[in-house]
Structures are given as structure tokens and as C-alpha cells.
Amino acid sequence: MVRVRSEIAYDCDVLVVGGGIVGLSTAYAITRAVPGTRVTVLEKEDGPARHQTGRNSGVIHSGIYYRPGSLKARYAVEGAAEMVKFCAEYGIAHAVTGKLIVATERSELPRLHALVQRGRENGIPVREMGPAQISEYEPEVRGLAAIHVGTTGICDFVGVARQLAEASGAEIRYGAQVGRIDRRPSLGVAVRTTAGDVVRARVLVNCAGLHCDEVARLAGDEPGMRIVPFRGEYYSLARPELVKGLVYPVPDPAFPFLGVHLTRGIDGGVHIGPNAVPALAREGYGWSVVRPRELGATLAWPGSWRIARRHWRYGAGELRRSVSKAAFADAVRRLCPAVSDDDLVPSAAGVRAQAVLRDGTLVDDFLIKEGPRTVHVLNAPSPAATASLPIGREVARRALVVLEAG
Fold first, then answer.
1. Which of 35, 64, 148, 267 is the most buried (most CB within 10 A)?
2. pTM of the model
3. Angle value at C-alpha 158, between 287 and 389, nearest 5 degrees
């Protein structure tokens, strides 16, 4: 067992587990708020942003989808503006492109109009469009109606993460996977890595993403949720000239997923996806990646079965698109009829760390909890990259309160 003794000097004031964009933003926010605070970041990979941060469509979300007053709504709106400013300040590739959300069926029109209202409630400029205006904006896209969201953009989130790491002044230890955690509320926290190194800190901040619930339990805190991983599969478009910008379907409000969309990225290519299928491992980026212990833990969580029973029809459609390129292409053609099956070129997949409660509820907002000497970020999927700067400030604020109290 890792031991913490009061006569042994702390290696740092705050120890952050996780070198994705949220963990690095937290380190950055701590050192900016209280210069001189010693921060160490442990990242099990050999570089930053190897999972959710570096495996998404690179979109700076406007915040239009999220419930007014929620953390997602507040932080996405704030974060989008701050992210553009941060990228401009440090010369990181970005562009404010705007995007279309397109209704292709009459049944989607009420949901589209609801998004207009939600956008206005969240303070987001929204412009409604008819079929002719859609064609002017995106000549190959077809729809009954659309809304244009002007504050949506794209950027290089991996570049942002690297800059946050550098600007934070924190000690970043790559290749450092947490093995054990020993927390003593009167003293602090000691972490032993799988390599045998021990790091002692006054406060632990858990930004472990796909493994955040496991880290919380290692620290002795029951998070009340489990991460159920959903893989999002992407294609790139062989004829990128078919799409000028960003084109999204009208999302189903029952799910936290936005549906298959087309995104012209900062590299000039057009990325298509993602779908959302259960992953067979926390880092299960393909059907061939199966980790029995992790899969067993997912299946043992009652919420997983309740999701399956409640949403099996939706899930069946997602699975069909996963195993059938033709089915995936059919979903794309709802928005852009000119896309053929041969236009879809397989691309790297991502995995969403979705927090699920025991009753099968998909946690629909960012979730941050505290324990003795600990702060845990337990649900931070999309739009967490967009919202990473305000999320980091909030997590930093909580960590500094714990630090002061200790």
C-alpha cells in the first residue's frame, strides 16, 4: 500500500490525473489563478490528447443544443468565444465557419424550431433558412428547412492541449499510469504509478476521461455512475468539394449524440460521422479491441442493461451503420444526395466517455464531484473540448478551495 507520512515533503500541491484538454486546462487555470502553485499532471500515454481530445471532429460548438442554464450551455457559449481567442493568441489553426442544422423530414421541423428557441435562450445568433437558401449556402445539400449558427467553428484541439501544457508551467509526466491511490484526508494523497513511482500531493484532481470512474474508486470515492464507452466511427469524404462547411442533421433530444454530420476540418478534408455504438473496451477503437475485464464491468452495471432495453431500436440503427458502409452512406445522403458509397473512406474512430447512472439515465450535463482531498470530473464528453477553458477554471476553483482548507 502507498503510504503518506506528514514528515515527507509533498511533490506538488495539486496532482492532475489525465493529460487531455480538460486536465491540461485545469493545470493552466490553477497556475494562472494562484501563481507558484505546484502542479503535476500524470498522463498514461506518451503525449497529450490521445483519446477524446484528439479523436473528434474538431468542432468548436456554439452551445445551441444544450438546456438553458446547464453547465454545457453556459460553458459551451463562453468556451467557444474563449477558444477562438486562445487560438488566435497562440497562433493555433482555427476558423469560425458557422454551420447548418438541416431538417430533411417534416417530423423534424418541430425539433428544428425548438432549437431556434433554445439558441435564442442561450444567447446564440441563429438564422432560419428555406430550401433555396440552403442551396445557396451548400449547393449539394438538400433539406426542407435549416438554421444557420454563426458562432460554430473548427480548430486544432491537439494543438490547444499542447499549448495549455506548455503555458501552464506544470510538470507533465507522460507514460505515467495510475496504479494505486492512498488518500489520507488529514494529510493528502499519494499515487503510485504502474512503473512504481510515487507522487505525493495535497489535492488530487481526476480528469481521467474514459477511466474517471475507476480513478474515483481507487481514491475511495463512489462516483454513483459508470463510464459506458460508445465508439464513434468516422469516414472521410473522397470528394471534399461536395461540402463547403459544416452540415448537421436535427438531433434526437432523447440522446446526447448529434447524429452523422459532415465537417470540413481545419486540414481542409471533410469528415463524416460519427455514429454511436457500444465499445467493447474503454479504448475500443474497433470491433477487434475487446478487454474482458472492462467489458465485464460495463455489463455488470445495471444502467447498461436499462439503456439497452430503453433504446434498442435506436441502437440497432447505429449498429447497422457500423457494419454496413452502404447504410452509413444512406444516412449521409439524407443531407447530401450526391455522396456515393465509394466516396466514403474509413477514418480513425473515437470513443465517447458517457456517464450512465444506475437507473440507465445518460448523464446529459457535465458532472463534477468532490471528496476529501479530491475533485473528480465524471462526465465531460462533447462539448468538453469547446468548453475546456471554463471547465478548467471551475475545476481549478474547487481544487484551490480544497487546497486552502487543507
1. 64
2. 0.95
3. 115
